[in-house]
Amino acid sequence: MRAPLLICALLLTASAWPVAAQAPADPLAFVDPLIGTGPEGHTFPGASAPFGMVQLSPDTDTTCQVRDCYAHAAGYSYHDPTIQGFSHTHFSGAGHSDLGDILVMPQTGAVRLDPGDPKQAGSGYRQRFSHDSETARPGYYAVTLADSGIRAELTAGERVGIHRYAFPAGREAHLLIDLRSSLYDYPGKILWSGLHLHPDGTLTGFRETRGWAAGRKLFFAMRFSAPLKDHAFIDRDQAVPYKGFQAPGRGSDALAEKLGKALEARLDFGRLDGPLEVQVALSGVDEGGAIANLDAEGAGFDTVRRRTEDAWRQALGRLEMDAPEPMLRNLYTALYHTLLAPSIWSDVDGRYRGPDDQVHAAKDFTFRSTFSLWDTFRAEHPLLTLVQPERTTSDVVNSLIASREHSPHGILPVWQFAGRETWTMIGYHAVPVIADAYLKGFRGFDPDKALAAMVASADYAPYGGLGDYMKLGYVPIDREPEAASKTVEYAYDDWAIGRMAQAMGRGDVAKRFLARSSSWRNGFDVGSGWLRARKADGSFRTPFDPAAINYGSDYTEGNAWQYSWFVPQDQAGLFRLLGGDARAIAKLDAMFDYDVSKLDYSHAEDIAGLIGQYIHGNEPSHHVAYLYAYAGAPWRTQARLKQIVESQYKPTPDGLSGNDDLGQMSAWLLFTALGFYPVTPGSNQYVVGRPFVRRAVLTLPHGKRFTVEAENLSAANVYVGAVELNGRPLRRSWIADGEIREGGTLRFTMQAKPNRDWGRGAGTRPYSLSTAPAER
């Protein structure tokens, strides 16, 4: 069904830009949740509300082993031929996975209890499907299960998921609830689970899982639009005879229940006169919390769908964009993906389960989780400060602070979901998220608590070699893996602490952490021009190959080519060590122009979207194209951005070159399309690139609007000839956050030849610590 449309879209992208499109009256029409569902993007196509706790989506394969499941990290892979069922929790674009909770599969005829072989039709309860029968829109998903003819529709609210199943006429309707199923087949994944049937027909249950986040607990409550005729609760770990059940309303007030490690529920509804609706609410607290969430938010399918579509319309409408249709589809889908996380984790009464596995209550904010901070501190969270500022203030920062207060280690989250810490990736990157919000003027949280949390995280010696980092000024590779990367990422986070402390008048803290932020120099080998791993005795580790990915575990998901550029707080200082602007530019060009045809990076996950040694499919490269501006050559940034956008993004299922990482890949595209990017969150500056939209209008609080306009934008006009801000020439290659929040117009004039003078002078370049006015 989609092939002709996608081919047309690609042709439009490759050809000259058509006549300007109008900003869409309904942005939902330009969102395609199937973008990124191919093997690299790791997005899911199902239904979710903005930042919703529930992500109700089809799973095409959950039976693969952990090391073989990379393409199924979100449960759904576009190229799979069967659907195993519909589960209620998914990550959008993560590089690893868990979740896939409470799998529901409708059936007719003899009920099958196992999913079966995906390569053998009819071997289990999984069913074949065709993309011709699929519909995916924000808050809505539908598909026809080919083997049974059942039409499945899904929608979701913040804490509820609603299923609607139309069974073929004359066929008996059954549901199978499989509590064994999870994304990735972790050994011993189900620690304990339970099912309870209440006299009013409500089914509740729970499960505790061992996976990426150990000991994760999730509870649910489920109601049906038709009465049960019969049921069975089955523990597949033991032979339990089937027992009938007297349906509610026929004199029984007894509760049916089952506890075990491999539970399934068979629910029989007989022949129905119309579709069966199933309302499901989740809770991280208890079954009572799930029932309360269901009471508060549960409703008929069409009601919930309209409510969620309105919420998406409002959220997506914060940014009105005018561009050719393929670009609009890329951009509105990207905006959609950036608004899926951090997801709600507290119940309607404010209760939530924290990192200590205890129940707490949020006051005056909604507790959120799903923080992929190593990825999202770069552009996703800065974008949210513009398109969802109220959530940044009241929810995100307060949730980070609360997580630290409940943490057994007394530090901020690293990679957290469902309130649980995974210890995945490196750095203490909750720090720049908080600092960036504070320095942009956001309040609504306790800054003293925030700063204390930031300092505690930066001083927690047992974490990732921090003890040695504080003593030696770098992380030694003979004591800690990925030491080169950790050294430079810690230094940036330290700078963010220093910046916020300085703004708060905490000179003692500012002095200490601004000094620590220069530690990146201790990992830089001036003789070779590379960031390298050092040993505890001070020597650089040998042998050394800057092109070796994950060489000796010196770097995190990358090599020296990517990580030698990670000094966002002081790019000018780095360029001086490289020998000046000309040498920095030459090295940047060498990175993009590197011939990788003889290199094999297939052993390294997340290494995708290569342009030379620039790896757009992974985050350490994301700021690099903008670094030419720090050397006085922003015109080179403009050319590189065209190269990246046209090769790394398409409005197709395989349209993302790497996993979206909870919105980071999408946020990069959105910022870049608007013409500026936050290379250094916490600096209150955006580096100016070039726009990919003819016009965009960002709606801000207090009735203010910030407009981006691009005159003469076309495929041939790659370069920026001139820039105006509110009608006056903008000669610097950066724009301040405050200038955006005040509202106004940023106007680009595009041309075919580069303007080599614009942004060239030293006084026009973006922030660097070593060239900025003294920070006391």
Automatic annotation (TrEMBL):
Domain Glycosyl hydrolase family: 290-751
Pfam families: Glyco_hydro_92 (PF07971), Glyco_hydro_92N (PF17678)
Signal peptide positions (record): 1-20
Organism annotation: Sphingobium fuliginis (strain ATCC 27551)
Region called Disordered, residue ranges: 754-776
Alphabetical list of SUPFAM superfamilies matching this protein: Six-hairpin glycosidases (SSF48208)
GO MF terms held by the record: hydrolase activity
All residue ranges annotated as the Glycosyl hydrolase family 92 N-terminal domain in the record: 30-283
Protein name (record): Sugar hydrolase
Start-end of Polar residues biased regions: 767-776
InterPro entries found in the cross-reference section: 6-hairpin_glycosidase_sf (IPR008928), GH-type_carb-bd (IPR014718), GH92_a_mannosidase_put (IPR005887), GH92_N (IPR041371), Glyco_hydro_92 (IPR012939), PNGase (IPR050883)
PANTHER family: PEPTIDE N-GLYCANASE PNGASE -RELATED, SECRETED PROTEIN
Record keywords, A-Z: Hydrolase, Signal
